[in-house]
Design brief:
With 76 residues, this protein is mainly α. It has one domain. It has 2 helices and 2 strands. Strand 1 and strand 2 form a beta hairpin.
């Protein structure tokens, strides 16, 4: 992906380049979500196990994490 002020974002004509970029984004987001779960949400849930909000966030982010893990491992 390239960017310039005149034409904005441009993708390569090669699908392999798109896929590599998308995977890199998925990997970065997986890292962010994993750190957020481990560092913030899991300790919150552990300290307040009856907190519905914390449980809901942990469950939903667990699903997001699982999806990102699959997307980063898939072969084309």
């Amino acid at each position: 992906m390239t960017f310039n002020r005149k034409t904005g974002f441009q993708l390569s004509e090669e699908p392999e380049v798109w896929i590599a970029y998308e995977r890199a984004v998925f990997e970065a987001e997986l890292h962010r979500i994993t750190n957020f779960i481990t560092g913030i949400v899991a300790p919150h849930t552990k300290k307040t196990p009856k907190d519905e909000w914390a449980r809901l966030v942990l469950e939903q982010l667990g699903g997001v994490k699982a999806t990102l893990e699959v997307l980063t491992r898939m072969e084309r």
